[in-house]
């Protein structure tokens, strides 16, 4: 319903339909190829000649779709709008009027450019076909999707990082107590006879942990992407989540498995050294399993260092 002279450029990434996630209809194509064909189908249903190009960008999803011209004259705007409305209603599961299946053929691939590009990608024929201007009047009160809510310009971060600190600490403590009160794991190498008896707790599945949390806590976590698992993995100083099971992290194992890092990794580790309090020193009944000089976290306020601001590289003139 934009101007007849409207053009579009789409770089498909996330697989979404008009009202939710895109549901696959066939398995012979890759999910990406099928979704590209779906977006092409939408463009055709809206009356555009849709062409495909492959961008030179460092991304696995670099195929773009361009609509530069219409498939109908300006005088056909009213009838085309009825076809658009019918197609959109059919995609959201509403009955169409008259009841008929909207079938939109896929366009032939562009013939100019990289004909042998993987996944059938070809470059766009850059010849400008031009388009007539003007459009017919469309009734403004005839909305397409009455319940449609576009995404906000600034998308809210939903990786549990913006949750209140006291809420995160409460969940971490509760899960840690559940694990510490369970049957202790025996890994052999980490708990040798020469090392002190340190309670590393048991192992629980994510479902078992969720069962012990309050309903209000779970509802709050469900509003975040990944929920409980994301929160536990964010607190990797305390927990390890492997194959859907949670257990207390034993830093002795990490020390035994340590491999030589690159210079950038070593510099990053040295900058973060002792800039955060050690959770085990403050909360574990046996304290931290590592001595103070080996633990990357501060054992008490006296060891705590202020975080260092990373230096920005000077631009090369």
Structure description:
The chain has 317 residues and is an alpha+beta fold. It has nine helices and six strands. It has two domains: 8-120, no CATH class; 165-303, no CATH class. The strands form two sheets. The chain has a three-stranded antiparallel sheet with strand order 1-3-2, covered by helices on one side. A three-stranded antiparallel sheet has the order 4-6-5. InterPro entries: tRNA_uracil_MeTrfase, Znf_CCCH. A zinc finger (C3H1-type) spans 272-302.
Reconstruct the topology from this structure.
Elements: E1 8-10, H1 31-45, E2 48-54, E3 63-70, H2 77-91, H3 165-180, E4 203-205, H4 206-212, H5 215-222, H6 227-234, E5 239-242, E6 245-248, H7 251-256, H8 263-272, H9 279-283
Antiparallel strand pairs: 1-3, 2-3, 4-6, 5-6
Describe what is shown at a glance.
Residues 272-302 form the C3H1-type domain. The chain is 28% helix and 9% strand.
